[in-house]
Amino acid sequence: MYNRESGHNIEKINIKNVLLRHQLNNELMEKIDWTKLPFGYLKTDCNIRYRYKNGKWGKPEVSTSEYIDIHIAATGLHYGQEAFEGLKAYMGKDGKVRLFRWEENAKRLIRSAEGIIMAPVPVEMFREAVFSAVKLNMNYVPPYGSGATLYVRPLLFGSGAEVGVKPAAEYTFIVFVTPVGPYFKEGLKPCSMVICRTVDRAAPLGTGTFKVGGNYSASLRALIQAKEQGYASAIFLDAREKIYIDESGPANFYGIKDNTYITPKSDSILNSITNMSLIELAKSMGMKTERRRVPVTELSTFAEAGACGTAAVISPIGKIVDPDVNMVYEYCTDGKAGPVTMKLYNKLVAIQNGDEPDEFGWMTVVE
Ligand SMILES: Cc1ncc(COP(=O)(O)O)c(C=O)c1O
Fold first, then answer.
1. Residue 93: pLDDT over 60
2. How many whole angstroms from 181 Cα to the centroid of ligand 1?
3. Pocket lining: 209 vs ligand 1, CB cutoff 6 Å
């Protein structure tokens, strides 16, 4: 579908360097306490890089460097031609490493690329890059039961030089991995969130449905302010009318009532793969599901609420504060996540860890 050179064999490239890097890192690795790993960046052995030039993607390069040499006029730096993805590899009890729904991330990166006129990454190239990055860093996949996982970060940006506002002619695609600790160290703990009316992360006809960096920098003012006020995150409303729930920071929102899983439909939110999966799980558990506009006023009718995404799977919401209208919506007063949230969370995590049969065909073993 999209142009690329053929005949790559990533396994044979630069492996000597990777082995050397691996030996150097081994000593450090032995000191890692996987159960205390933060949700942050840790250097691994190598990353995979591709360049798009003259209308086609080139061969993969396995790099042991954490740095890139980038043109000072690259459009990724000046005009925000940049998109990324985030997915995780899980170590199962059986010692097999599995990736969760990687094809959905590949498709979403194509959508993001097309949304900001970048050269899309073919699904097959995405697969090759992601699986190779995991395989070449297999020792960094945290052990089963530690709660930690290997986070995979594909990154695409305009690396060609332009001064006028136009799409670059050259692009760079990089996949790096880093082991990350569990989002909630003491298990699922309900958090407090605050409704934000002073900042929009994306406009209705803008880039909200694409996973592009600009959306995240646009959200920072609200997120930092929320954190300073003691909240876990800010909940953004629809930018046009400020009536409907959009999403909560880097996660989709859901509410539960009357055996129904309800999640916002909006033209400015990211289509969360975790949310898609929770919808399917809720259906399989006999629940009704609704994806529709969710007015702020409906918050008072939910029995449970949560935010979902790759990082935490689910962040149960204990309380939502709407300071502008002096309202507080409470979902759990005993400090525990609600029963539906727990059931959905446990089921999804069991599938991801390989503890329960993958009846939906979501997991791919990295071999
Ligand atoms: C803005 C935003 N919404 C939602 C999500 C959750 O999406 P996913 O479940 O695919 O990680 C993310 C994280 O990727 C995000 O950045």
1. yes
2. 18
3. no
C-alpha 310 – ligand 1 centre gap (Å): 7
Cα(22) to centroid(ligand 1), Å: 31
211 is catalytic: yes
Q: Report the sign of the C-alpha dihedral through residues 235, 240, 242, 246, in that order.
A: negative
pLDDT, tens digit, 9 for 90 and up, residues 236-263: 999 999 999 999 989 999 999 999 999 9
* pLDDT exceeds 90 at position 46: yes
Ligand 1 in reach of 270 Cβ (< 6 A): yes
Q: CA distances (Å), 291 to each of 153, 190, 211, 277, 365, in order?
A: 28, 23, 20, 13, 31
Does the beta carbon of 219 sit less than 6 angstroms from any atom of ligand 1? no
Tokens of 124: 């097959």
Query: Does ligand 1 lie within 6 Å of residue 251's CB atom?
Result: yes
How much is the pTM? Answer: 0.94
Q: How far is the CA of 248 from the centre of ligand 1 (A)?
A: 10
Q: Is the dihedral of CA 262, 264, 270, 271 positive or negative?
A: positive
Give the span between the Cα atoms of 363 and 98, in whole angstroms: 6
247 lines ligand 1 (CB under 6 A): yes
Select which of 12, 31, 211, 319 is catalytic.
211
Mind listing the pLDDT tens digit for each residue in 289-301? 999 999 999 999 9
CA dist., res. 297 & res. 290, Å (int)? 17
